[in-house]
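I am still getting used to backbone structure tokens and would like to learn alongside you. Label the sequence line and the structure token line clearly, so we can match residues to local backbone shapes. Would you write everything just below, so we can both look at the same thing?
***
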Amino acid sequence: MTQGDRTTDNPDVRIDRTTRQLLDAAEALNIEISPAGQVREIDAGVLLGLAPGVLKQRRIVGTGPCFYRRPWRGARLTYRLTDLAGWLEQGRADDSEWASTSSSGIDCADHLVENRVVPRRRRS
């Protein structure tokens, strides 16, 4: 692999890159980020492109990213962007068919952030 290649085998580099992409997406969506780099559970789901409730389900069964029970801005649970990036990269497929970039050349993390699922607002 060359240095100019977008993919790398170094997990720390991939996690750093994915963290920056999540941070950029959070800023573009005006998602509030705590001083510790944490976001609310609903916002984490939006950033990851997950339907509302999926992170909660994954948390309950123990297959989700690390979370914090320290209240912040009314949120009971928060997720650190670096933990979300690590969780994404941990689930990265190593098979060449499912490599870091798709056949269209779109980076997996970019794809998740760009194709996020925006939660519906509850009717009042």
